[in-house]
């Protein structure tokens, strides 16, 4: 508890712990959404098992986040002891972690998920077009925000390649943190590779958002099954219009790579190519 290097290593392991379990929860959310897209009932045992596993992974990820902030308080005390001569107290109280606003922000981002035996539809009407989203789809999109946990591990790995950074920071009276890590990544020839990887990851994530926003739950039912929302049987749930003059039949595009292609051509040209967003959120994804 009194070694700066050991506490720093423990923080990296805690970040890795929360990233692994947060990512596993994200995978569960994506899998349950894909089952719903394939017309598996949201009340199916397989979907509820995935939801329960996601809940467990969420709790473990939050535990890792708490451990990170706990160690950060201890690390700060050690740095103040070494640089300012303050007395070193290694006993960290829980309230010191709970008083940190950033801790609660991370808990809020990671805690939001769909628990077992819970499934609803979110309905909206835009430009006279009616559509619904299953809660599995909505929460799968929300859970993609956990990607930041992986980015933090990448920053930890970058900083770990500078074993004497704490000594340098002390003598130079500067802070070498995540901001410095990302600045270091974007220098030299390696920056081209990292920028390409970030761009590809952005295409996949935003493409997933685009696909989710274009899927209407009104079409995720087998023939003869009554939709949860009776408005799905109305004409404006099937026949859509973007200008109230030209009409087309709304059909779900289930292929993920079509959505990735849409985000790719939007990021490289000024138009949408052969795929046009038809919802407000998918237009926002295209704008991103």
Automatic annotation (TrEMBL):
Sorted UniProt keywords: Membrane, Transmembrane, Transmembrane helix
GO function terms (MF aspect): small conductance calcium-activated potassium channel activity
Superkingdom, taxonomy of origin: Eukaryota
SUPFAM superfamilies named among the record's database cross-references: Voltage-gated potassium channels
Potassium channel domain sequence ranges: 255-286
Name recorded for this polypeptide: Potassium channel domain-containing protein
InterPro entries xref list: K_chnl_Ca-activ_SK (IPR015449), K_chnl_dom (IPR013099)
Presence of keyword DNA-binding: no
Keyword set includes Transmembrane helix: yes
Bilayer-spanning residue ranges: 53-75, 185-210
One of the Pfam families matching this protein, by short name: Ion_trans_2
One GO term describing the cellular component: membrane
Species this chain originates from: Hemiselmis andersenii (Cryptophyte alga)
